[in-house]
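To: structure subgroup
Subject: Chain for Friday's discussion

All,

I'm putting the inputs and outputs inline so they're searchable in the archive.
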Amino acid sequence: MKVFMIGGTGLLGSAAAQLFIDRGHEVRTVALPPLPKGAPIPAEMEILFQNYLELSDEEVLQMMEGCDCFVFAAGVDERVEFPAPVYAAYEKYNIRPLERLIPLAKKAGITKTVVLGSYFAYFAKKYPAMKLTEKHPYIRSRIEQEKVALSFADDTMDVAILELPYIFGTQPGRKPVWVILIEQLENMGPITFYPKGGTAMLTVRQVAQTIVGAAEKNKGGNAYPISYYNYTWNDFLAIVHAAMGKPNRKIINIQKWMFQLFGLHMRKVYKNKNVEGGIDPVGLADIMCMNTFIDNKWAKSLGATDDDIRSAIFDSVKLSVDAFKGNADLVEMKSE
């Protein structure tokens, strides 16, 4: 199988590309320079350094020529800030590209598509009474992204959406997304104030396994809630604190109303910065105070196997601390 990927040099894309290649497949990717220093980018992967958003349909079709599978491993998540309305940014980077690229993939003869999405979409569908799509532009955009992608599933195209949770692992030379967590914890002082609750998670290697598994196994149009481990915040933070060099740091679990007060403060911060968050900081309390756990049966069905999640968390936090302190030369995450 020959794979065409958007974002093949990123943290998740490069891991998936290596696994595709290890299994005998070929990979061609479009990505933005520069490559992170020291990143294990597969030497066998064909890299086209372009901004795919600026390419014509004819140029994209030429890149897709001869490929069997399309993997969309790009876009932005809720941690990237944009001027209001933030939903416009999600349309630009997460939704409109699929409206354009999947039909082009069909025209090029590609029969399989894999899209990296968010587990927030899974919970929005599972708990409609929480009204997550009404409160949070980012979650609404992920639901819309799924609808767009799955609308193209038919007898000629299999489409898989991977609803991904917290992901841990590092790519040398690339700034982790967890720097914001380190900044928050450092600003709290000597004690961590965090709600009760928890989250689903998995490692970068396991994400790669599910990407390749979806490409090889998925039939029809399906959204897969992906997880392998479920950790409470307290168990997760114990690993984070150890990686920060503060293994004995105290955790005080705050009530939902206290988190909501902090959310009101963050709304003012966003307003002063002239940005809008993809996740409403007040409504975030509902999510953070629940256990957003997912059974690992779907990940296993796509080929994910056990991994060292504690080491993955530890390594991610260590690199994030270095980035926060300015001790590492790292490439920022990109959208295109």
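Points worth raising on Friday:
The CA atoms of residues 175 and 333 lie 7 Å apart.
The radius of gyration is 20 Å.

D.
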